[in-house]
UniProtKB/TrEMBL annotation:
It comes from Caenorhabditis remanei (Caenorhabditis vulgaris). Pathway: Amine and polyamine biosynthesis; S-adenosylmethioninamine biosynthesis; S-adenosylmethioninamine from S-adenosyl-L-methionine: step 1/1. SUPFAM superfamilies: S-adenosylmethionine decarboxylase (SSF56276). Signal peptide: none annotated. The record marks E86, S87 as: Cleavage (non-hydrolytic). Its cofactor is pyruvate. GO terms for molecular function: adenosylmethionine decarboxylase activity. The keyword S-adenosyl-L-methionine applies. One of its GO terms (cellular component) is cytosol. Belongs to the eukaryotic AdoMetDC family. PANTHER family: S-ADENOSYLMETHIONINE DECARBOXYLASE, S-ADENOSYLMETHIONINE DECARBOXYLASE PROENZYME. Its EC number is 4.1.1.50. This is S-adenosylmethionine decarboxylase proenzyme. Substrate binds at F27, E86, F244, E269.
Amino acid sequence: MSSATATCENFAVQTHPVKAPDEEYFFEGAEKLLELWFCSSKIGPEGAGSLRSIPRDQIDAMLDIARCKILHSKHNESIDSYVLSESSLFISDNRVILKTCGTTRLLAALPVIMQLAGTYAGLDQVQSVYYSRKNFLRPDLQPNLHKNFDAEVEYLDSFFEDGHAYCLGSLKQDRWYLYTFHREVEFPAHKQPDHTLEILMSDLDEEVLHKFTKDFAVDGNDCFMRAGIDKIIPAGADVHDELFDPCGYSMNAYMNDTDQYATIHVTPEKEFSFASFETNQDLVCLYSQTRKVLQCFRPNKILMTVFANDISIKGKDAQQQLWDRELPGYRRTNVQFVRLETETLVYAHFVRKAPQDSTSSSDEDDGERSD
């Protein structure tokens, strides 16, 4: 999503971009992503409370610190989904996922989230931390805490002892930063299959960009159908979305009766176009879903990651496909495998092939084997 930021009750919200004289407008579409898993140091998971018990006004106050606000929300038995002025928030019983774009101060909200978890849910320990982002186009415009990854790592280390920091990809191209922490706890939750697919797309096809503007669609639902997002999200998912004025799009979805989610954010300005897709769903093949995402947005550059724990069959399959196969129409420039504390990670970077190089591969193919 995109548009300028303006002050409203001491926090930034997305508004129609207004350029000051001689000032070039820019919006950083790439998000900062924080995922926190909580537990209790005193009782087992059966007796612990839920993060969903945190009152709405306390969530609003936390987001004020991050410099964003809730536009609307939806809920099922397992997850609370919030579309924000700058991206998304998901809260389930023991997990918080906060994803913010622009010049938000995401990590400034970390101590507040931890305090709220202890106060309202009795979850006084952070069991796992995942903080990630791609390199920014304009890091000089970010708040001091987020201007560089070293500063972010130093800040996170002040909360978590023995955290791990990674940089994946080429230092001369797009790259992806990751910070992780995991604590062995006395009362671990029952282990479930878990995986996450994230696709970060830059330099989108110009024919795609106008689909995420008010000139093309009336509202979020109209954009969801006419831009082809409906072909990406599994049937039966509950969706809520926002089409910004004059441009930009955000969508959250969750699969009924589960805490599985999907989220999409689009910054459609040609000079700095960007889109992201993230999901932990296991209803459809992740590789097939990836191809649908790419057919929808037609980016020139792709950064992909797949996390999977050791009992996630679909996550492991997606990792293997990402490792073994090319994506039709794209050339893989980098692929890396990392074994983390409790799961594995595959990272890959792709660029679109020149037209003469892609004539032999069709978007209908399942993909070609890598040499």
